[in-house]
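lol so apparently i was supposed to do this last week
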Amino acid sequence: MGQTIAEKIISRHAGATVQAGDIAVVDVDGTMATDATAPFAIRAFREMGGTGLWDPERVSLVLDHATPAPNERVGNLHRLMREFASETGCTLYDVGEGICHQLMVEKGHVRPGDIFLGADSHTPTYGALGAFAVGVGSTDMAAVMLTGKTWLKVPQTVRIELTGELQPGVEPKDIILFLVGKLGIAGATYEAIEFAGEAVDTLSLAGRMTLANMVAEMGAKAALVDTRTLPSSYPFTPTAADEDAAYRAVHTFEISGLRPQISLPHAPDKVVAIDSALGTEVQSAFIGSCTNGRLEDLHAAAAVLQDRHVAPGVRLTIAPASRQVFNAAVRDGTVAILSAAGASFITSGCGPCVGTHQGVPGDGEVVISSSNRNFRGRMGNPRASIYLASPTVVAAAALTGKIVDPAEVLAEQGSP
Amino acid sequence: MKTENPIRGRSHVYGDDIDTDRIIPGKYTKTLELSQLAEHVLEDLDPEFRARVEVGDILVAGHNFGCGSSREQAPLALKAAGVGAVVAKSFARIFYRNAINIGLPAVEVPEHDIGTGAILNVRLTDGVVIDERSGKRFRATKMPEVMVDILQAGGLANYLKERGGYGPFSTEQNRTP
Ligand code: SF4
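anyway here it is w/ iron/sulfur cluster bound
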């Protein structure tokens, strides 16, 4: 019987031919933890009797969740990570370098066909590169630091074929929001999701990362975006599924008619087409996160906000996904456009996405965000509401103070 | 600390899709102090829980318990607050693994109608949960052997320490039918 991409990658790393449902111990190519998960991972590593890392070159620690440190408690956790890194020789990305997932891809810590374990739930993002990348907790990550191995259950795969072409003003984020709405928050629990089809072939790496990122919001273990058309700066051999691979389900969606999508409070899968959310007033807008904080996302926002200003009473906060993204946006003038439009740029990192320190909304306030989660309390206040959307929709809402069809503001932008 | 078997405790029942932000809000997770995690457990879901829970109590939930982030602070907060086991119709993947890894039994019982205040008897090795007063028995999903071993060692740290790694492992022996 043929194999899915996940089955092929895991077989290679287990030294045995595996199929969905098998439990395998596999060699891991890389691992990573953040300031939210590394402190417990370091503690668990010590509890395991760990002193040296299995391979310092394959272990990264990233300070991104609460950066710069908002208080002494976090400051001390950051210090603990720096000390562990200098003691063990692993890579440390300090405050301001960027979001873990952006850095793992940008700095080449993960490659097509790898198995990667990240101590963060959005690790499947690296499925954009065709890696079997799984989010785990601190103790699992510690076990990888120690042994270079992990045990896992070979997942079943859901295949999603995307045909057609996106309309102007509609973005990869809208595709994935739509899919999260269709499949639901537990729609692919424990499973891998393969993305393929002509609409995937044309996507940039950034767009593929946005797509893979939010499989976490369907409970999936990993995303595997077809790499046969991946734009890449280095050569690699793509892994393709066999023709007769067994899937749990195959879905085909035609996306040419897709409207911009909105996820309503307080669950990522409460997704509607923008038309049923038009007019919703917002007080805060956030562009950033591992879903949509990349250069093309900032370009999308700048296209809406060039020579304009955010509405009175609206705060627009931007956290570029990495320093590299920020520097590129400084160089090409995007930062100047957005800052002139009233945006506040904050440290590259998770920023307001996770509600630990910055940009916390007030009671009853409405936030529109380009991130991936809108659970109650996610941004630090359970009495606020969060809507999720693409960077273009977020920028248009910041501009007008309410959710509007971005096509309208872009059309005005185009006219003299 | 080894995990006890069977586990006996009083139930606290909640619904479906309880996410990790409701188990422990992100703003409280930046600490290594377990008591600080316990203080805010389930705060946005049920502010009274912290005062009501007693050591050994069992959290009971519907589908997709623990969806959301990878924070191990979620099962740690429950364990630190005294929760002896979590019984749910289904679990989100990372929560399930994390709970087992830190030695908090997470027991999947696809069908149950357990009410709050029941006295439950959770038999990990038999794969059954018994409501002592009504005498009803609920079937639990069989755990992969490796998970039972980890749980019985009291968590992954102990498991690896005792064995000095994963040891020889047979994929064939762990093949599901
Ligand atoms: S940006 Fe948000 S979702 Fe992404 S890793 Fe950071 S906290 Fe998690």
